[in-house]
């Protein structure tokens, strides 16, 4: 029997979504350019052994028409590489869904190029991390109504469910889904920064000898700042109460800075998100020149004490 959906990419998110689809009676076909990932996945879940393709061409032969391909791979060049291989093999009516954190401008460009050949390209924001992908993510699609009609029956069952319905919806055409997911991640930056600063203030108040893990656990229920991010903070503090195993180095995957750029382009103030992105940049610096310049200026105009390197 032909599969209704093919998933390209069987790393953390792809494999979790595959299991979620299977739980809801949606039989997916799988492919990953790294065969060791599919081998490890099928070793753990042998029920998928017959669903693994050995190439993108093989994957296409396994799918029902119109063929629907969900890309759960890193944004950027990996997506371009997959599209290059698929070129000439896709047919009018096929739908390619990009489930990564792609810049919405790129999604719009790809959608326009593929639509000229009769193929739909959908940007799908997927939120919830590994646990969400496995048991119910929030999904934000940018798709024309014609493509959404084919995707909604697949995405609605696996999404998080609320009293108001499934957390899978069409945001608008083309890049709208990835735009909304970009802003979502910008908000996430701000939330994480606020938690981080709050816990640092409490840790610095040595006279109270506060138990940060206890506080995080107590805030998780009933408080107005309760959230899944706080749940994760509590879990991290159980594993490492003083976070001594970690360096104060925070990467960013792009969505925060893209959100800030949009705020500038649209003249919409976003001071919290902007500050959270800047804080990540600062975390990667050792002895930043700006701090040295501040010290030098204070010393020059007021003779204030400075700490000198040996």
Number of helices: 13
List SSEs in N-to-C order: EHEHHEHEHEHEHEEEHHHHHH
Extract low-pLDDT stretches: none
Distance between the termini: 73 Å
Shape: globular
Helix content: 40-55%
Q: Tell me the radius of gyration.
A: 23 Å
Strand arrangement, largest sheet? 2-1-3-4-5-6-9
Please state roughly what percent of the residues sit in beta strands, choosing from under 5%, 5-15%, 15-25%, 25-35%, 35-45% or over 45%: 5-15%
Mean pLDDT: 96
Structural class: alpha/beta
Main sheet: strands, sense, barrel: 7 strands, mixed
- Beta strand count: 9
Brief sketch in words of this structure:
The chain contains 13 helices and 9 strands. The protein has helices at residues 12-23, 35-44, 56-61, 77-86, 104-115, 129-135, 145-158, 176-204, 212-219, 228-239, 255-266, 271-283, 289-302, and strands at 5-8, 28-31, 68-71, 95-98, 120-127, 138-142, 161-162, 165-166, 168-172. The model has no long low-confidence stretch (mean pLDDT 96).
Give a verbal description of the structure.
- By secondary structure, this protein is α/β, with parallel strands linked by helices.
- The protein has 13 helices and nine strands.
- The strands form two sheets. The chain has a seven-stranded mixed sheet, sandwiched between helices. It has a two-stranded antiparallel sheet with strand order 7-8.
- Helix 8 crosses helix 12.
- The radius of gyration is 23 Å and the shape is globular.
- The N and C termini lie far apart (73 Å).
- The mean pLDDT is 96.
């Amino acid at each position: 029997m032909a599969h209704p959906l093919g998933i390209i990419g069987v790393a953390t998110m792809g494999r979790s979504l595959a299991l979620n689809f299977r739980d809801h009676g949606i039989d997916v076909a799988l492919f990953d350019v790294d065969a060791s990932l599919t081998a490890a996945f099928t070793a753990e879940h042998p029920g998928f052994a017959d669903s693994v393709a050995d190439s993108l061409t093989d994957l296409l032969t396994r799918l029902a028409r119109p063929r629907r391909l969900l890309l759960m791979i890193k944004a950027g060049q990996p997506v371009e590489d997959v599209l290059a291989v698929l070129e000439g093999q896709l047919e009018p009516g096929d739908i390619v869904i990009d489930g990564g954190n792609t810049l919405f401008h790129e999604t719009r460009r790809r959608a326009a190029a593929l639509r000229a050949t009769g193929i739909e390209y959908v940007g799908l924001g997927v939120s919830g991390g590994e646990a969400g992908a496995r048991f119910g993510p929030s999904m934000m699609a940018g798709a024309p109504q014609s493509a959404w009609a084919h995707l909604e029956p697949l995405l609605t069952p696996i999404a998080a469910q609320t009293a108001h319905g499934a957390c899978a919806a069409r945001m608008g055409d083309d890049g709208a889904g990835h735009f909304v997911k970009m802003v979502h991640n910008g908000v996430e930056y701000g939330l994480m920064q606020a938690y981080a600063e709050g816990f640092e203030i409490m840790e610095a108040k040595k006279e109270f000898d506060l138990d940060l893990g206890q506080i995080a656990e107590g805030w998780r229920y009933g408080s107005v700042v309760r959230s899944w991010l706080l749940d994760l903070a509590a879990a991290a503090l159980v594993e490492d109460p003083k976070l001594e195993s970690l360096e104060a180095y925070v990467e960013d995957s792009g969505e925060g800075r893209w959100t800030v750029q949009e705020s500038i382009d649209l003249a919409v103030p976003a001071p919290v998100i902007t500050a959270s992105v800047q804080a990540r940049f600062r975390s990667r610096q050792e002895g930043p020149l700006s701090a040295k310049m501040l010290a030098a200026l204070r010393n020059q105009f007021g003779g204030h004490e400075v700490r000198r390197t040996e």
